UniProtKB/TrEMBL annotation:
<keyword id="KW-0687">Ribonucleoprotein</keyword>
<dbReference type="InterPro" id="IPR050063">
    <property type="entry name" value="Ribosomal_protein_uL29"/>
</dbReference>
<protein>
    <recommendedName>
        <fullName>Large ribosomal subunit protein uL29</fullName>
    </recommendedName>
</protein>
<dbReference type="InterPro" id="IPR001854">
    <property type="entry name" value="Ribosomal_uL29"/>
</dbReference>
<dbReference type="Pfam" id="PF00831">
    <property type="entry name" value="Ribosomal_L29"/>
</dbReference>
<keyword id="KW-0689">Ribosomal protein</keyword>
<dbReference type="GO" id="GO:0022625">
    <property type="term" value="C:cytosolic large ribosomal subunit"/>
</dbReference>
<comment type="similarity">
    <text>Belongs to the universal ribosomal protein uL29 family.</text>
</comment>
<dbReference type="GO" id="GO:0006412">
    <property type="term" value="P:translation"/>
</dbReference>
<dbReference type="InterPro" id="IPR036049">
    <property type="entry name" value="Ribosomal_uL29_sf"/>
</dbReference>
<dbReference type="GO" id="GO:0003735">
    <property type="term" value="F:structural constituent of ribosome"/>
</dbReference>
Amino acid sequence: MKANELREMQTAELTSKLADLKAELFNLRFQHAINQLENPGRIEAVKKDIARVMTILAEKQ
């Protein structure tokens, strides 16, 4: 996700997106723990997306 796309979203949409990203991160970590993760770089990308969403939410408040 790009920051510009996130800035166009409403607060409720961002909160929902944040919950989805956290669930995805949990699933990726679980897959990594049982050695079924095919793309380990995805974990870092999801972490950065979470940080972007949290930054935009902080800006809106």
